[in-house]
Structure formats: C-alpha cells, structure tokens
Write a structure and sequence with these properties.
homodimer, mainly alpha, two-stranded antiparallel ribbon, globular
C-alpha cells in the first residue's frame, strides 16, 4: 500500500523521536522508571500498519492543515492504540501480539498496566499541545471513551456483536480519526457527514473481513491460526449469521461443539464445515463487497482529495480475498 | 477539619452530578457498558478526604479564580486519584480499600482496568474543557506522569524510598495540585516557588506520619492493621532509618526476620521492638515535627490567604500523634 507504507515510515520516525525526547525528560525524574517509555517504544516498533494516524493525517492535510502539524498530531492515534492494545492483551490474557510476547507476558501485569497508562497519557500530551477547538475536543473525548465501552462489552462476551463492531472498529479505527482530521481542518459539516458515512461502511466491511479471516484464513498467509477465534469463543458476525441461517439440526450440532470447554482442531473443522454448508463465507463476502461498493459510490460524491487515494488503498486491501480458504 | 470537610461535601455533590450526566450520555452508546461510570461513582462515594481537590480549589480561589470554575476543575484531581487507586489496587493485589472490596475483587481485573482507564479519561475531559495555558498544561502532564513513575518504582520494590516518597506523595498529593491552582490564577512565580517548598515539606512529613502509623498505629483508631506494612515488606523510611542506626547484631536479627516468607504477628512485634530500641519512632516524630515547623515558618513569609487555613488544618492533622503507640 503506497500511501500507507510511505506514511508509516515517516510516522515511525516522528514517533521514535518523540519517545526518545520523552525518555530523556522522564529519566531526570527516575532513570529506572523511564523503562515504561522504552516498553512503549519497542511495542510500536514491533509492527502495526498505522492506519489510524494515516487516516487522521490524510483527512486533515487533504483540507489544508500543515503537514508537520498533522504528522505531530497523528502520533496521538498510534500512542492511544498502543494503550488500547497493551491493556486489551491483559484483559484477553493474550500471550502473543504481532509475533512477540505481549507486554504483560514479557514483564508482568503491573508493568503492563502502567505502560498502557503511560501511553494514554502521552497520547493526550501530544493532542493537547496546542488547544483544540471545542468540537474537536469533544469528538476526541468521545473517541477515547467509545472504545473503552466496546472493550468492556467485548470482555463480558456481550451478545450485541453489532454494537461492539461499531464501537471497536467502525468508530474507533475509521470514523473518529477521519472526523477529527476534518474537524481540525474546519471542513463543512455536510462533507464531514459524507466521509463519516463512508468510513462507517468501511469499518463494518473491515471487521467482517477480519472475522472471515479469523475462521477461514490461510494460516501461512495470515500468520494467525484459523482456529483461534473459534477457540476463544469470539462472538463474531459469522456466528450470528450462522444462527440465523442454520437448520434446527445444524444448530444442535454447533451448540454441542461450541459449549465444549476446549475446542480441538477437529471441532473447529466441523464448525467451519457447518458454516460452509450454510454458505456463511459466501454471504459474508457478498456483504463485504456490497459495503465496499457503497463506499465507492459515496466517494464519487466528494470532490477529489488525497484522502480518496488512501481510502481506495484500504478498500482494495479489504476486497482482496487471497488469504481466504475457498 | 472544618475547611476540608465542608469542601468535601460540596465537591462530592459536584462529582455525583457530573457522573450522573456522564452515565446518561454514555448509556446512549451502550446501556450495559455505562456500568463503568457507576463503578467510579460508588468508588468515590465510599470514602476519601478530597485533599487533592481541596488543595487545588483553595490554591486557585485564594488568588482570584472564580469559585464555580475552581470547583469544576478540582473534580479532575479526584477522578485522577480514582484512576490511580483502582489500578494500584490491581498492582498491589489488595483485596480491600476503604473497608470495601477493591474493584478488581468485586468484579474482575478486566473491568477494573477499564474502570480505571475511564476515570483517567474523565479527569482529562474535565481538565481540558476550557483550554489551559501552556504552562498549566505542562504541569498537568508532569503531575500525571510523575505518579506513574513513582508507582512503577514502588511496584518493583525499588530501594530508593526517598524518590518514591517524593513522586508518589510530595509531588502528586501536595506540590502539583497547589502549583496547578496557583498557575491557573497566574500567581507570581516567586510566591509559587515558596508554596511549592512548603508543600514539599508537608508531603514528606505526611508520608513519614503515614509510615509511622503503618507500624505503630493503634488499630482501633487507624482502622488498619499495624502489621500490614511490615507483612507487605513495604520499603519505608522507618526501615531505611533503622538500617542506618542499628548495630550489626540488631541488623542481623532484623534481616533474619524480614526475609521470612510470611511474617507472623510475633515477628512484627519483634521488629517493632528492634525499631524502638533504636529510637526510630522518636527520630521519625522529631523529623515530622521539624518539617512541620519549617512549613509554618515559610507560611508566615506569604501574605495571608484562605489556603493558609487549609494548610494549617493539614499540619494539625499531621502532628496529631494520638493514634501512635507510645
């Protein structure tokens, strides 16, 4: 992805520079405690696509915000994401993240809690460096709090999958970073609303693709076990759709498998086969394609800006089903 | 305490009102997830003296800040404290706080992490409602980050007790809330520096008193076991002072006791007796009184304002040794 990968390079340079400065500053208070910054720094350098900072950056620079200022503010989104992931990994008891040990596995829960807290504080430190407008500030508060609500629902295995998808992916990853960029650039509210509608469609499509990959992904391409979502009993849209489409017998077989304490690989194969019988992957793919097409149509209604290119890249990535078992 | 207790009443009213408004707002996103707000609300209503918001409030109103505005901003300090305590309790694996179950004991670790995160976000939501000056914003960032560093050192049983005391108590509870109030009121830097010096002395005295009470407190008055600090192997100034004053034999007895995995009540009595032989409680009391007297002297150098009364109350509380075994 041309735009994202070149953005990532520049963004990471700025992030590392900021964190080095911060480490120096905090080490005057306590040299030993500045390890919290080094943890954040190596976490960030271990991977990630920088999709949220990129969306913010292209949204604001597309409408006239100075590039240096936009780059500086975009760091907020990656630091906030670092906070989310470090705490989420404790909550989900995940041993691995991006192929490396999670922070709490490498250190311990106290250190991971504090490193996550620090990442959130750094996100705010950058965001409020220059006072944002009242509306930008309000959207930023909402952006932060929404994702916590989504995470809470997720942590309790709440059955309302659509609300979780909406809060954790559509709003958090897509709608809010773009909205904040556009609000900062004082874009007309009608244009903001159209972009938000597009980002909502993309957000849901992105999540559906993620759910599909989680169960039907080819492991050597995705780098993630295609059994893990099922084994974690993750309540995804695939399961919801299956429940709506399955016969009483199919549902009975599924429920008997899914209530097992530990799903074996064979159990997962059987569930996948049940899903396939109900054409779930085809239905989900169709829904993804429909949402992507809707987005493309709406994109044409907005005069071209650089943000279009980034969004097209994201859309191309979503409709690439090369990593899906067929 | 006249000033603090009447302040607490008003502050709690404002806190509850804010949290109710917030709960209504967030329940439109997800009714079930707004429990995070209710957790924060009942945590706050379970106790606490509101010393940090009171210091902020009296510091800013003493120098001309509007009372309503100061009260609104003071809520930041109690919400931030709520964040600290909820996360600290997970870190320290404490089952009880203020006589009630800690949040992670009553619910679970994921919910406590998220409730703490939410409290931090609410503290920021209030603090940035009206854009603070650049210097106030910088002090606020420092205030937040310092306490994390202190907590990190504390969680690793770091031997530098003085730095921990400085970060976790002197700066966090006393210096920064007053400094932020004075900076908001644009008080002359020389006056700010004098107040900071006073608050530093008070902070250390307060921590020493807390350490003394932790080992020599009369349980029926303090409501806390006087064995718990020792049993938690808390590295306090009492222990540091003992190590400096003890004979080789006394040190040997102490080390043999302290390295035990679980200290029994008799072991704690023996440690207390070793401390007493080395006149540790008398030395600590003397140091507390000296710091309090230094503060009083410095207080006279600043023209009288309402903040003086609050500080006098705090000092009177610190030099009250009625709960100490003699």
């Amino acid at each position: 992805m041309k735009n994202i990968s070149s953005f990532k390079k520049e963004c990471d340079g700025a992030l590392i520079e900021f964190l080095q400065k911060k480490e120096t500053e905090l080490s005057t208070m306590s040299n030993d405690a500045s390890i919290l910054i080094r943890i954040i720094s190596s976490f960030i350098q271990n991977g990630g696509k920088r999709i949220r900072p990129a969306l913010y950056y292209f949204a604001s620079t597309s409408y006239g915000i100075d590039k240096n200022e936009a780059m500086r503010l975009s760091l907020t989104f990656e630091l906030f994401q670092t906070f989310c992931l470090i705490h989420d990994d404790i909550i989900d008891q995940s041993p691995l993240r991006r192929g490396n040990k999670t922070v709490h596995s490498q250190y311990n829960i106290p250190t991971a809690i504090l490193a996550g807290d620090m990442a959130l504080m750094l996100a705010d430190e950058i965001f409020f460096e220059k006072p944002p407008s009242a509306s930008v500030k309000q959207t930023y508060d909402t952006f932060k709090q929404e994702v916590l609500l989504g995470e809470y629902l997720d942590s309790t295995n709440h059955p309302d999958v659509e609300t979780i998808m909406d809060l954790k992916t559509a709003r958090y990853t897509f709608i809010r970073p773009v909205e904040l960029g556009l609000q900062t650039a004082q874009v007309d509210q009608k244009i903001i609303d159209t972009w938000k509608h597009i980002m909502y469609q993309i957000g849901i499509a992105f999540q559906l693709k993620d759910d599909l990959t989680g169960v039907y992904g080819i492991e050597v391409i995705t780098g993630k076990s295609s059994d893990s979502d099922l084994q974690e009993k993750k309540n995804t849209y695939l399961i919801e759709l299956f429940k709506q489409n399955a016969s009483t017998d199919q549902l009975k077989v599924f429920n008997n498998l899914f209530k097992k304490k530990k799903l074996k690989s064979g159990d997962c194969d059987q569930i996948r086969s049940l899903f396939t019988q109900c054409t779930i992957p085809t239905l989900v793919q169709a829904e993804i394609i429909q949402k992507v097409n809707n987005s493309k149509e709406s994109l044409h209604s907005i005069p071209y800006v650089k943000l279009h290119d980034l969004v097209e890249e994201v859309l191309a990535h979503i409709v690439d089903f090369g990593m899906i078992m067929t």
